[in-house]
Amino acid sequence: MGTKDKAVRIFFTGVGGQGTLLATRFVGEAALQEGLPVLMSEIHGMAQRGGVVESSVVMGNAFSPTIADGEADIVVAFEPLEAARALPKCSPLSMVITGTTPVPPFTVTVGQSTYPDVKKLLKMIGEKVRRLITVDADALARSANAERSSNVAMIGVLAGTGLLPISKESWGRALTVILPGKLLEQNVRAFESGFVFGEQSA
Amino acid sequence: MHELLVAATDKPQFLLGNEAIVRGAVEAGVRFVAAYPGTPSSEIIDRFFQFGEEAGIYVEYSVNEKVSMEVACAAAISGVRSLCAMKHVGLNVAADAFMTLAYVGVKAGMVIVVADDPFLHSSQNEQDTRYYAKMAGVPMLEPATPEEAYRMTLEAFEISEKFGTPCLLRTTTRVNHCRGPVRIGSIETRDIARGKFEKDPFNLVVIPAVGRKLRLAHLERGKKLQAESEKSALNYTVGKGLFGIVTSGISWLYVQDALLSLGLTDRVKILRLGFTHPIPKAIIREFLAGIERALIVEEGEPFLEEAVRIVAQEAKLPVEIAGKGENLVPRVFELDTVKTKRAIGNFFDVPVALPEAIAAPELPQRPPNLCAGCPHRATYYSVRQVFGDEAVYPSDIGCYTLGVLPPLRMADFLICMGSGVSTAGGFSKVLDRPVVAFIGDSTFFHAGIPGLVNAVYHGHRFVLVILDNGTTAMTGHQPHPGVELTPAGKVEPKVSLEKLVRGCGVERVAVINPLQVKKTQEVLREFKANLDETGVSVIIAKSPCPLFESRVLKKKKKIVFQVEESCAGDCGRDCLTVLGCPAFMLQKSENGEERVLINEDLCSGCSVCSQICDSVKPRRIS
């Protein structure tokens, strides 16, 4: 999809506590390792308080770090409801990679509103965009014995699809930059399991 | 050593805009940094705080922005390079110091970083701070990327020192919180600077006679800064054609993306301004003389647009100028590539293909919420039980402002830091209703004390509840003068809230633990009963922020709570409809039966719910 001459715009969305910002930084760092022009944007503030966390990575031939409505080439959602909420960032040409495990918002858990049926929700998203990949990221991370690395497994899926002009070596180097120390090993395993899943989905 | 100090200089580093500013300042030899945290500027002071000591830099979390500017200017007057950083509304707090410091000037470089927040991501207004540069007559630089933020910080110190004036570095959220590659330089080791102060009262003590003299010198300095801006490499022209665009800051990035997408890169001439005050009039004049139409692309107010129009009028140039307007550049919220494309296409009569965005489906909202176990929720619950709907609840700025949302609905009025205390006094004078005001501990130190003294002096009649969670939680758990718990352990607070409040002249003061529901409500009832006779009374609701305890202090929870299976749910379910703790959930089974459960992962073990409902029981987990 992307080359140095073309821009790739990736929008990330998740819920506070899911590791959205770290995952975003991982993708940005990988683009940097690859020598691509890259900017990343993040919105802080409510991340710890159960709100939505949104961020973006723009790589290749582009200048601004944010993504306007309809401009996302890829949306990576760590939660299915947030994937649906991010649809305005998509056009019919976009691709969506979403986690399938719901994190019910407070309004749902206290019974004020209802969480949509996940299957129907995913079907609706799939009908509106060019491509939808659904990922049970928690299961992928568990299978790699890296239970707390679902976010990195999701990025593994993104990397595995081969949609980004980033080599596997650059992904590996980026991981050592953002997660040095004792957490690295389990995250490498999570990334690998996601990567294989991504290759198969591509 | 901290990663920002040892980062490699031979390849680009992936830095946050705020980190790039920090690195630039360290390379520029900053030796004194002071700030009160505020999104989106907080990471600047946070990073300095992490490595200040090892880098030989004095770093302080000042109690408010005005204080930060004053301590930092004393350093700069003594020949020590200094920096302070604040959010846009922080400059309102510091404005008194700022306006006259602009007259007095500095001896060593002093950079004031001020971060605007278009779209109000985490602010109460979207004021355009650029007007402050104009009002104070100080130089201002506006970066667009982390790389520019780094370079402009270095340059800001040079400009400041060369002209003896503080220099504004004005950012917006998308610059502060953009991460991008930055090629950094080296840090020269310097001695820990000691200042040198020479007595010079007739230039440093602003009595009217001195102020008049300084005002004239200030205007002269403005002329020199004007000349500097005219020759600055930060103001430059790219492209060619009879269509022109004038832009600055992050908007410069949107303009480039829009022109690329519209295929107009070769047909439009752009004046990109990085040194935006004093505005380079000669550069603008020359730019306008070579084009037929000019569009000013900027977020917020028509700051550049007004300047461009003045230049055109003074030089009698026949160029057509536009900026803010319907179908052009919006005045509210953030710009983006699509909005910029639309404005450019409409103004230059070029067809625009916009991306086909998918419509937003109807979905349940996900508002931010006070955390499970947050002591503020416990305080709010008890205050509402005792004071009900009748009372007016002025609030203040911090996590606890989230209490405005249902089901708590415990905020009735808020404008700025500290307003909770003073407006409570005002309400009490014109309303015949009880008034209970809320303010956080850090916000009380920041701006609440004068309001409290005022209330004592004038006999304002209200209860002030200081929500003391022992940290500045909202902006990332920064310390403040009343902190008792630090990662190193329990310390004696430098300033005791209770003694401070009593020192302000408040006679009825109680310190309570809001997690003890019954005791808390007893105290509240006693305060309510005495509301008619006393003036202002203060309750310090003291209980640490559970996020701070678990993340910063690494405290492990020992107990969680469960709802007994026997709970029939015929009680009205105060747990869901009144307390609103996010650890509670309503589960519906296949046959439509509803049951209330507690998510043990979210439960912090605060026990408040078990004091309200007999069906909630503890379970020991370690």
Summarize the structure.
Chain A has 202 residues and is α/β, with parallel strands linked by helices.
Give your account of this protein's structure.
The complex is a heterodimer of chains A (202) and B (622). Chain A has 202 residues and is an alpha/beta fold. In chain A, 41% of the residues lie in helices and 22% in strands. In chain A, α2 links the parallel β4 and β5 (90-99). Chain B has 622 residues and is of the alpha/beta class. In chain B, α17 links the parallel β15 (436-440) and β16 (463-468). Chain B contains 22 helices and 24 strands.
Please describe the topology of this protein.
The complex is a heterodimer of chains A (202) and B (622).
Chain A: E1 7-15, H1 20-33, E2 38-42, E3 52-60, E4 72-77, H2 80-85, E5 90-99, H3 106-109, H4 118-128, E6 131-135, H5 137-143, H6 150-160, H7 168-178, H8 184-201
Parallel strand pairs in A: 1-4, 4-5, 5-6
Antiparallel strand pairs in A: 1-3, 2-3
Helix pairs in contact in A: 1-6, 1-7, 5-6, 5-8, 6-8
Chain B: H1 3-6, E1 13-16, H2 17-27, E2 32-35, H3 42-55, E3 58-61, H4 65-77, E4 82-87, H5 88-104, E5 110-116, H6 130-136, E6 140-141, H7 146-163, E7 167-172, H8 173-176, E8 178-182, H9 201-204, H10 208-230, E9 236-238, E10 243-248, H11 251-262, E11 268-273, E12 275-277, H12 281-289, E13 293-297, H13 303-314, E14 320-322, H14 337-348, H15 375-387, H16 419-430, E15 436-440, H17 441-458, E16 463-468, E17 485-486, E18 489-490, H18 497-503, E19 509-512, H19 517-529, E20 537-542, H20 546-552, E21 559-563, H21 574-579, E22 584-588, E23 594-598, H22 608-612, E24 616-620
Parallel strand pairs in B: 2-3, 2-4, 4-5, 5-7, 6-7, 10-11, 10-13, 13-14, 15-16, 16-20, 19-20
Antiparallel strand pairs in B: 1-8, 6-12, 9-11, 17-18, 21-24, 22-23
